[in-house]
Each structure stands twice: as C-alpha cells, then as structure tokens.
C-alpha cells in the first residue's frame, strides 16, 4: 500500500501510515473525507452535482473554456460534412447519361422478358436496381446537404450576432486606457488644479457606475 503523503505542520515529517485505498492520505489526514461531487464544499455549476464522475471533469473544462459560446469549430465541422457529401455525389455521378442508362436497361428488361430470355431479363433488372440505389444515395446526400446548410446558416447568424455584441462591449482594460487618455487631456488643458480634480472625480465615479465594462 502507498504511504500517506501528508506531512506534520510542526515537524515537517511525512506521515508513516498507509494511504486509504484510492486516496493519497490516511484516515487521520482526510482519507475518509468526501471528494468530488459528494463533497459539501464542491463548487459546481447548475448541472454538475447531477453528473457522474466520468462527466464532471469534462463539464468543468467546458465551464472554464473561454471560447465556450464560439461556434467557429462547429461551423467548420459542418463544412467538412458538406464537403464529404459532395464527394459522395461526385462518386455517384448523377447526370443525364445516368437517366439514359436507366431507360436503356428498362427497355432491355422488357425486350428480354417478352422474348422469354429470363436470364438476360434478370441481369437487366439487377443493373437497373443498382442504378436506382445510386440515385437513392444521391437523394439522401442532397437531403443531408440541405439540412446541414440550413444548420450552418443559423450558426453563422448566431456567431455574427455574438461577434457584434462582443465588439460593442468595452472591456475594463480598454476603459482604463480611455480614462487615462481623458485625464491626460484634462491635465494639459485645464489650468485650475481644483477644476482638474473635480473633473477627474466625476470621471472616476462614472467609471465605477458603468455596468457594461467586463
């Protein structure tokens, strides 16, 4: 068994007891304490206390993600899926020549059926079925492309609005740079020391009340 990793606060000597199973410390040093979502001191979001341990770490990573609401990756993923479906359509090769081939196979099937050549008729109908399957695959591919493009349109619009909102919000750093510039202008153009102090105080109060800085 592993040794307890705790150390005495007074002597600095490492504890000689065995750590509890699955823990790094012994029972005397907190080995029996609840950990993770079971701990009463665990800091969590709205849903984390309901999540299993296997998801709680991922959940916390998402909360700490500075680009959590950014949709650039999702839009890129949709673009990749659209390109894959277009590649599939290119392989299928749906065009006027294919419809001509379908008509020819159907006429051949009818001819062999009427002449009693059942083997050749079966061969023709199988080839006809294979072409129809290709057409069905193409239809499904186009359906998915249309759905993906609509999803992409919504995501792009959402991302556009997010970027506009983000651009309109002045950060604390930008605000402080602006305030410093204003104070410098006042210092250089207002002769009275008392007037400069009064204006600076009003600017400071305005900044402190400003709710849009983030």
Question: What report would you give on this structure?
Answer:
This protein is an all-alpha fold and 214 residues long. The chain has four domains: 1-33, no CATH class; 34-63, no CATH class; 72-168; 172-209. The chain has six helices and no strands. The protein is flat and about 110 Å long. The two termini are 50 Å apart.
Count the domains: 4
Q: Into which percent range does the helicity of residues fall? A: 55-70%
Describe the global form. flat
Mean pLDDT: 76
Q: Tell me the radius of gyration.
A: 35 Å
Uncertain segments are none
Order of helices and strands: HHHHHH
How much beta, percentage-wise? Answer: under 5%
Gap between N and C termini: 50 Å
* Count of β-strands: 0
Structural category is mainly alpha
Q: Please describe the biggest sheet, giving its number of strands, its sense, and whether it closes into a barrel.
A: none
């Amino acid at each position: 068994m592993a040794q307890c990793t705790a150390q005495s606060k007074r002597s600095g000597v490492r504890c000689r007891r065995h750590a509890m199973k699955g823990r790094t410390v012994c029972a005397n040093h907190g080995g029996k304490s609840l950990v993770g979502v079971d701990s009463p001191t665990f800091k969590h979001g709205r849903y984390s206390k309901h999540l299993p341990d296997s998801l709680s770490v991922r959940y916390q990573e998402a909360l700490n993600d500075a680009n959590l609401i950014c949709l650039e990756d999702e839009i890129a993923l949709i673009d990749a899926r659209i390109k894959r479906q277009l590649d599939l359509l290119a392989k299928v090769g749906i065009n006027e020549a294919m419809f001509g081939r379908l008509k020819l196979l159907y006429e051949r099937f009818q001819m062999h059926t009427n002449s009693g050549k059942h083997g050749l008729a079966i061969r023709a109908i199988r080839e006809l079925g294979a072409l129809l399957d290709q057409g069905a695959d193409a239809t499904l591919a186009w359906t998915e492309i249309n759905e993906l493009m609509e999803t992409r349109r919504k995501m792009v619009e959402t991302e556009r609005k997010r970027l506009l909102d983000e651009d309109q919000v002045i950060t604390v750093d930008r605000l402080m740079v602006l305030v410093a510039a204003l104070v410098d202008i006042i210092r250089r153009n207002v002769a009275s020391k008392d007037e400069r102090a009064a204006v600076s105080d009003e600017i400071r109060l305005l900044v402190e009340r400003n709710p849009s800085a983030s």
